[in-house]
Amino acid sequence: MSILEFYFDFSSPYGYFASTQIDELAGKYRYHVDWCPYLVGTAMKATGHQPLFNTPMFHDYVVTDVPRFARLLGVPFQLPESFPLVASAASRGYYWLQEQDPELAKKFAKCTYHTFFGEGRDISKSDELQKVAVDCGIDADRLIEATQDRRIKQLFKSKNDDALTKGVFGSPFILVDGEPFWGADRLYQVEKWLQSGGW
User: Given CA atoms 79, 84, 90, 94 in this order, what sign does their dihedral have?
Assistant: First the structure.
């Protein structure tokens, strides 16, 4: 089965929207989705860009566009008071889980996204991340311990470095057989590419 790489930041609402669509879309064309959380801030340091939410005019647009996008997709959305945040712990937890059970890691990622943007809860807090773990049938204490493990921290750093090497700079950022697509609004292009093999 071919692989579609799905790069996202847990603090990205557009990544959240894509996460609700990507598996079904890829599955229609017999592609497996490799979920790859990373920190957009790493790419911003490399490009010199600022977060949309912190940029004049862009901020006002995003505040309007994000709930509108959620309504279009019919997915729950609540802008968290803690938005934006650095989602290192959730990402490290994901990669710790992925080593053991990739499907459980994906379930954790979806649950984490729903907790943050579907319910507006702060996923940077250990107690909230523990609740996500419990809801997914994961040992919460072990997950939190793993997020502080030096090896897991290094693993996550290497995942961020790998993303930059591949030219990933936003969330969501999708690679289909090496072809890059940036943004949740490009999913229709991703589907056309999967249908046709390119153009």
Answer: positive
Quote the CA–CA distance of 184 and 171 in Å, as a whole number. 8
Residue 122 main-chain phi, psi, to 5 deg:
-80, 100
pLDDT of residue 150: 98
pLDDT attached to residue 179: 96
pTM here is 0.94
- Give the pLDDT of residue 1: 72
Distance CA 59, CA 79 (A): 13
What CATH number belongs to 2-196? 3.40.30.10
* Distance in angstroms (rounded) separating the CA atoms of residues 95 and 49: 27
Rounded Cα distance, 106 and 21, in Å: 13
Q: Is 90 exposed, middle or buried (0-12, 13-18, 19+ CB in 10 A)?
A: buried
What integer pLDDT is reported at residue 60 of this predicted model? Answer: 87
User: Closest Cα to residue 67, out of 144, 125, 14?
Assistant: 14
Asked if 52 and 59 count as a contact pair (C-beta separation under 8 A), the reply is yes
Q: Show the low-confidence residues of the chain (pLDDT under 50).
A: none
pLDDT at site 51: 65
Tokens linked to 78: 């609540």
Exposed e or buried b for every residue in 126-138, given b needs 16+ CB within 10 A? eebbbbbbeebeb
What is the predicted pLDDT for the residue at 112?
Answer: 98
